[in-house]
């Protein structure tokens, strides 16, 4: 389950920001997660609670903002939304798509005290 390692990375980011911003508690963490990122939001929520238990983010809410997958169709020259890799172009049916978005995960915002 790579979500555990991802949560450990999130805690590292939160702790770095706490040192920079001199805050003592994190109330909410907002994450942007792309639908093509291979991250399971439910597993991430479960791991987040376990990983943050003895940290500055103990008890913090985890808010997930889903980012849609996007691709450029080489056949019809359109930017299109896709829900998973290897989907055909919804405009022309071609499979010649280059993914342009929805693969990332990032900490978007922290609510702190």
Automatic annotation (TrEMBL):
Provide the residue positions that the database annotates as binding Zn(2+): 73, 76, 89, 92
Q: Which domain of life is it from?
A: Bacteria
Q: Where along this sequence does the record place binding of Ni(2+)?
A: 2
InterPro entries in alphabetical order: Hydgase_Ni_incorp_HypA/HybF_CS (IPR020538), HypA/HybF (IPR000688)
PROSITE patterns documented for this protein = HYPA
Which keywords has UniProt assigned to this entry? Metal-binding, Nickel, Zinc
- Which Pfam families does the annotation name? HypA
Entry's PANTHER family?
HYDROGENASE MATURATION FACTOR HYPA (PTHR34535:SF3)
Q: What does this protein do?
A: Involved in the maturation of [NiFe] hydrogenases. Required for nickel insertion into the metal center of the hydrogenase.
Which family does the similarity line name?
Answer: Belongs to the HypA/HybF family.
* This protein's name: Hydrogenase maturation factor HypA
